Amino acid sequence: MIKTALVWFKTDLRIEDNETLVKAIAQSEKVIPVYCFDEAHFETSVYGFKKTGSFRAQFLLESLEDLDAKLRTLGSGLRIVMGKPEVEIPKLVQEYKAQKVFAKREVAFEEKQTEKKVQTELFKLRCELDTYSTSTLYHAEDLPFSIKNIPDVFTNFRKKTEKDAEIRPPFTAPKQINSPEIPAIELPTLEDLGVSKTTIDSRAVLAFKGGESEAIQRLQHYFYNTQSLSTYKETRNGMVGADYSSKFSPWLAMGCISARYIYAEVKKYEMQFGANDSTYWLVFELLWRDFFRFMFKKYQTKFFLYEGIKLKKGNSKSLNEKLLSQWVNGTTASDFINANMLELQQTGFMSNRGRQNVASYFCNELNMDWRLGAAYFEEQLIDYDVCSNWGNWAYLAGVGNDPRGHRYFNIEKQATDYDKNKAFRKLWLTE
């Protein structure tokens, strides 16, 4: 048993099914929950877009407020610091004389670099960094293959994983946390983070609000209040309204809810209302999320290269400022693309169907470096997740995991198939 430990929260802002928190409580007499606003997350990337735009920044602030409130009911609270984690976390270790820092394990390149830097600084203070894999549905250790041998084709990965691996049960939320007195939470403003405030357009599919409480409320609504889960497979390609899909992605991305918690609820739901293709399909989509995360473990930096993991030429490497601006601002030659891009710009969200179309349009019709599109999504998306975003963009650019190589969407056909009465276009293109 160690005397004092820090729990460094990152994109795991929850109490339910949080192994990092559970293990810290079990192994330490006192626990100090911490969140560090990493200044690197608010910089402008090499592509000219901010790494975090206003929608996600606002969602993050709401999530932290909710986490702090939940921790306080358990006798703790959340310490907030700002700066570089490799500077701020060791400072707190010294302040509290902590022997260990518990944190979520990272897989993407920049996040791994930060983790290593923190570990190096903690080592100088004779403090350990313990990390836990808390983001996926299947635990990496339970996969029927080593990371380097994971199939690059999703279907092969899915079939073998479903057949030979088990999903672990979620961890129960702690009943109490023994912490020293933690001062009242003081969150930075959007201005402090260098982000301008924007309000979500009233046409948004959902008024997304951050936090575990909101995530669980959304699950209750989608599963039990409306039983929308039973028709998910038929409606998931929708584009207008709150319930054509689960909309769990922003909370999953911020870790306000875990994939395993959702899975356990799907199983409960199936006991009550019956299992069908739709209840399975939600789990299938969670598996896609796992797949990209494991691909990042396997390929590391390659998903950020122009050639992707295929190491072959994709679309053009060019940058045409005018075309980029038309795409971003929804003034291209395609009304379907424009409606989707306006929705993204004004709400931070876009349907899965929309994302595939605007990415295909960017890569194929505009023929620009796909990474510019991925970087713009990184700034705008309220549900940005590094692995899913860059993995999906590489896939559509033909340099990722798509077994068919170059995937091309016929935008007009897609518009007719998925917005045949133009309800979506009318919503976003009518002033």
Explain what the structure shows.
The structure is a single chain. The protein has a five-stranded parallel β-sheet with strand order 3-2-1-4-5. It folds into three domains: 133 residues, Rossmann fold, CATH 3.40.50.620; 88 residues, Alpha Horseshoe (Serine Threonine Protein Phosphatase 5, Tetratricopeptide repeat), CATH 1.25.40; 125 residues, DNA Cyclobutane Dipyrimidine Photolyase, subunit A, domain 3 (Orthogonal Bundle). The model has no long low-confidence stretch (mean pLDDT 96). It is of the alpha/beta class and 431 residues long. The chain contains 17 helices and five strands. Helix 10 packs across helix 15 and helix 14 packs antiparallel against helix 15.
Shape category: globular
CATH architecture of the largest domain: 3-Layer(aba) Sandwich
Number of domain modules: 3
Characterize the largest beta sheet: strand count, sense, and whether it forms a barrel. Answer: 5 strands, parallel
Strand content: 5-15%
Fraction of residues in helix: 40-55%
Strand order of the largest sheet: 3-2-1-4-5
Total number of strands:
5
CATH level-4 homologous superfamily of the largest domain? HUPs
Structural class: alpha/beta
How far apart lie the N and C ends?
63 Å
| Tally of alpha and pi helices | 17
Level-1 CATH class name of the largest domain: Alpha Beta
Give, in order, the helices and strands: EHEHEHEHEHHHHHHHHHHHHH
Mean pLDDT over the residues: 96
Uncertain segments of ≥5 residues (pLDDT<50)? none
From the alpha-carbon coordinates, what is the Rg to the nearest angstrom?
22 Å
